[in-house]
Amino acid sequence: MKEQSERLLAEVETKLQAVTDLKSANELKVYYLGKKGPISELTSHMKDLSPEEKKEYGKVLNDLKQTITTSIEEKIKDFEMQELNEKLASEQIDVTLPATKIPTGSPNILEYIIEEIEEVFMSMGYDVVDGPEVEEDHYNFEMLNIPKGHPARDAQDTFYIEDENILLRSQTSPVQIRTMLAAGGNTPVRMICPGKTYRRDADDATHSHQFMQIEGLLVDKNISLSDLKGTFDTIAKKLFGENCETRFRPSYYQFTEPSVETDISCFACKGKGCALCKNTGWITVSGAGMVHPNVLRNCGYDPNVWSGFAFGFGAERLAMLKYGIDDIRTFYQTDLRESANFDRKVEE
Ligand code: DAH
Questions:
Q1: Which of 32, 160, 237, 262 has the fewest Cβ atoms within 10 Å of its own Cβ atom?
Q2: Who contacts 192 (Cβ-Cβ below 8 Å, separation ≥6)?
């Protein structure tokens, strides 16, 4: 038995040395320790032995089984370790590598400009309010001192719905009216209203039948044009930098008296004159003025006690200037390359 055992051990050792992978090591295990293997076979002879012989035989057999099991298991463990190390090496993650960029959606650039303006005005105590886009002629025109047949209506080629009393608002100014009416004629008002407006314009690089305005209104006692100037100056500096200068030019709107166009100094040429400012050194960014006494009166405010200013920015125009966008249609076409650019432009 001893001889047999030594031969078997030597055989296993030789085979184990020749084994090159985990699979064959496992096969060896199945063969030598399995039911039909040499160990089983040797065990089956036990029954023919005397109790004395059995004792001796059994011990040798047991040792043999132990040794073979240990050798093969060790080999298997070696291979498993090797496999694991190879796997770890090949799957190693270099955490210092730049991550793969996953394309995500981004807000329309108008969102950024509107949010920025909202923040500045909210910090000055203004409320951000909303108004209906399908509006009554009464609020869009009449209450703003623009009666039926007034030539100013032609400038705002309006989309009428059903009859001539219901329309898509051509400006956000009706929200002034609604806000003042809601305030009841006896409390101060500070509000801005960013929102969509509509005009029957043919779309081109600078016109869009739908665009965003940001209306503003402040009504209180002893408000003068210099308050408007200070407010406009603050917002211009926030949007276009501390060196931005502002000026007013006389203008005409039916709902303000006096009315002005508000200009900022050209940030591209610093006022020297360039294509952006059409060589004037100035860029117009909004219409504004002191709320017309008729409008105050229409909304229940006594013009002898109350005064106020109002303004209307074009959001697209501001965004085009600030982010160097040369076509208004960019905001409304779903070109993903453009919207990806928006984020970049805002970050710069
Ligand atoms: N509603 C005017 C427009 O659409 C813009 C405007 C000008 C609004 C002067 C105002 C203002 O509140 O005071 O052309």
A1: 160
A2: 117, 118, 121, 126, 127, 128, 129, 214, 215, 216, 217
Residue 319 Cα to ligand 1 midpoint, Å, equals 18
Q: Give the pairing of strands 189-198 and 127-128.
A: parallel
**Nearest Cα residue to 180 out of 215, 149, 211, 156:** 215
| CATH code of the domain made up of 109-347 | 3.30.930.10
Contact 68, 9 (CB under 8 A): yes
SS3 call for 68: helix
Pocket-testing residue among 219, 255, 313, ligand 1, by greatest number of atoms within 8 A of Cβ = 255
Q: What is the per-residue pLDDT across 100-129, written as a single tens digit (0 to 9) for each?
A: 888 777 788 889 899 999 999 999 999 999
pTM of the model: 0.71
Domain boundaries, the chain: 2-90, 109-347
Q: Which residues of the chain have pLDDT under 50?
A: none
Query: Of 201, 280, 235, which Cα lies nearest the Cα of 120?
Result: 235
Give distance in angstroms: CA of 184 to centre of ligand 1: 22
* Identity at 97, one-letter amino acid code: L
Q: Which protein residues touch ligand 1 with a CB less than 6 Å away?
A: 171, 173, 215, 253, 256, 287-289, 310-312
DSSP character string of 274-310:
-TTTTTSSEEEEEEEEEEPHHHHHHTT--TTT-EEEE
- Let me know how many helices (H) and strands (E) the chain has, helices first: 12, 10
HSE at residue 31, side-chain half, CA atoms within 13 A, is 12
Q: How many Cα atoms sit within 13 Å of 289 on the Cβ side?
A: 19
